[in-house]
Design goal:
Elements (H helix, E strand, L loop, with lengths): L4 E9 L3 H10 L6 E5 L6 H5 L1 H17 L16 H24 L6 E3 L2 E3 L4 E4 L4 E9 L3 E3 L12 E3 H4 L8 E5 L3 H12 L3 E5 L11 H12 L4 E2 L3 E8 L2 E7 L7 E5 L1 E4 L3 E3 L33 E3 L10 H17 L12 E4 L4 E6 L2 H7 L3 E7 L4 H5 L6 E7 L5 E8 L2 H13 L4 H5 L9 H14 L18
Parallel strand pairs: 1-2, 1-6, 2-3, 6-17, 8-15, 9-10, 9-15, 10-11
Antiparallel strand pairs: 4-5, 5-6, 7-16, 12-13, 13-14, 18-19, 19-22, 20-21, 21-22
Length: about 475
């Protein structure tokens, strides 16, 4: 065993977005590093997450837009779907993105890379699947996450898939039952429907992605249910593997009549599970939460007061690439300078669902503000009569903005609407700069643009805060419906 013992200053377990960020920061402090990876190189985002899903959404949106040609006065037909060509492009572009990540890994010091799985023997010692043992002064856990599959779904047998499997398809199926109305379920469910796949989306408790504001959630439910079968509060009594695929018996609503339908596949989009269960973390003295994840400080990524840090999806907090990147760099920096540990202010929370209309959350959510007891005011603005949105026939949307009553500072927003990925960025920058609603309204707004709808919402919020007048209806400088 002694001949196989390797000693390093820092061991980083995992080479996803967080692990790569931690490695780059750790290099600024030491060259004695073990970068441990047991699986394939390539981040979750590039391989099975944000990038390949957008490659499926893009043709779906293009085809859907063709369906509204006649409303513009254009004569034409909706394009037919070649599932094999669509999935060929998805796989090729996905592999291209993964290739970029692998090129980065190829540039890392070969003496630092260790191809093996790791388990804790104690707080400083890791047993590797290749028979080696590593003793590290500091450790960064960045092992990512994997799809969470409820046991109930196992009855679908070989027709049970996750979003990871979708991007390896050679062709589109004829029908899919998507379970989970979170970000992944909404994006893939709507995209598959728009590409001609008979798709049913099964949710629970009328949840829609990350939305917590009842008004926005109700509006979003109406939008999606008007487009495709979305059982947001359904009850499933039976899942059975049959010759044709998966037979599902369900009620669309608790008081509705039971029905049975056969799908080619059951797609489980029921969240992700942190990859901590195979690390033997119980061999350390770390305090674990109910999920078995080490308790840590999100401002330093430090687990308790120990020399162990955790970053990325594995901490079960915010499974987003930009968050994983920030966390990885912070964990790597503090592992490098330990025992000196710095806290860093985190960026304003920002989340986007690339559905159509897009869903976005910025800053403090409605539920967080209610729970915090912070005195706040809110405003609502509809995009159904917003000038530019109507011109482009994308006039579906509702935005809710929240401001602090005592200071007028913008606190957060929840929204669904056209181009809201861009409005969400504008709002996140404003919140991070701690701008008041009045200050944001002094920023330039062009005409005619969708951003004018945001301005209307801000003017209404200023009035709700008792810091400005009631804005005039359809004022000239707003433009019609802005």
């Amino acid at each position: 065993m002694d001949n196989q013992l390797k000693q390093v200053d820092i061991a980083i377990i995992g080479t996803g977005t967080a692990g790569m960020g931690a490695y780059r920061e750790a290099l600024k402090f030491t060259k004695s590093i073990a970068l441990i990876e047991g699986g394939e190189y390539g981040t979750t985002c590039a391989r099975v997450g944000c990038m390949p899903s957008k490659l499926l959404i893009a043709p779906a949106e293009a085809r859907h837009r063709a369906a509204v040609f006649e409303q513009f006065g254009l004569q034409g037909s909706v394009p037919s779907v070649d599932g094999q060509l669509i999935m060929k492009r998805v796989r090729e572009e996905r592999d291209r993105f993964v290739g970029f990540v692998n090129e980065d890994v190829d540039g890392f010091d070969e003496t630092h890379k260790v191809k093996a799985y790791a388990k804790f023997i104690d707080e400083h010692t890791l047993a590797l699947s290749n028979g080696e043992t590593i003793r590290a002064e500091r450790i960064v856990i960045a092992t990512g996450s994997r799809p969470n599959i409820p046991k109930f779904f196992e009855a679908a047998e070989d027709r049970l898939i996750t979003n990871d499997d979708v991007f390896y398809w050679n062709d589109l199926p004829k029908s899919v039952a998507v379970f989970g109305a979170g970000v992944i379920g909404l994006e893939l469910g709507q995209a598959l429907h728009r590409l001609g796949v008979d798709t049913h989306l099964f949710g629970a408790n009328d949840a829609v992605g990350p939305l917590s504001d009842p008004a926005i959630r109700e509006y979003a439910l109406g939008v999606f249910k008007s487009e495709f079968p979305f059982h947001s509060n359904g009850e499933v009594s039976s899942i059975k593997r049959v010759a044709e695929g998966v037979e599902i018996t369900f009620k669309s609503e608790p008081d509705s009549q039971e029905q049975t339908k056969v799908f080619e596949y059951l797609l489980a989009a029921t969240g992700r599970r942190a990859n901590v269960d195979n690390l033997n973390i119980e061999n350390t003295q770390l305090t674990l939460d109910t999920r078995g994840i080490p308790v840590y400080d999100p401002l330093s990524m430090q687990c308790g007061h120990s020399h162990i840090f955790i970053a990325g999806d594995v901490n079960g907090d915010i499974p987003l690439l930009h968050e994983a990147s920030d966390e990885g760099r912070l964990a790597g920096e503090n592992a490098g300078r330990f025992p000196e540990v710095f806290k860093r202010a985190r960026k304003t929370p920002l989340g986007v669902v690339f559905s159509d209309p897009q869903i976005a959350t910025v800053g403090k959510s409605y539920s967080q503000l209610v729970a915090s007891k912070v005195p706040f005011a809110s405003s609502s603005v509809s995009f159904e009569n917003q000038g530019r949105a109507r011109v482009m026939l994308v006039n579906k949307g509702l935005m809710r903005l929240y401001g602090e009553k005592e200071t007028g500072i913008l606190l957060g927003a929840e929204m669904i609407g056209p181009s809201h990925e861009h409005l969400a960025h504008l709002l996140s920058w404003s919140i991070q700069m701690r701008m008041t609603v009045g200050e944001i309204l002094q920023m330039p707004f062009y005409h005619p643009v969708i951003e004018e709808g945001l301005r209307t919402g801000l003017r209404l919020l200023l009035n709700e805060l008792n810091m400005g007048p009631q804005p005039p209806l359809n004022c000239i400088d707003c433009g019609p419906g802005a």
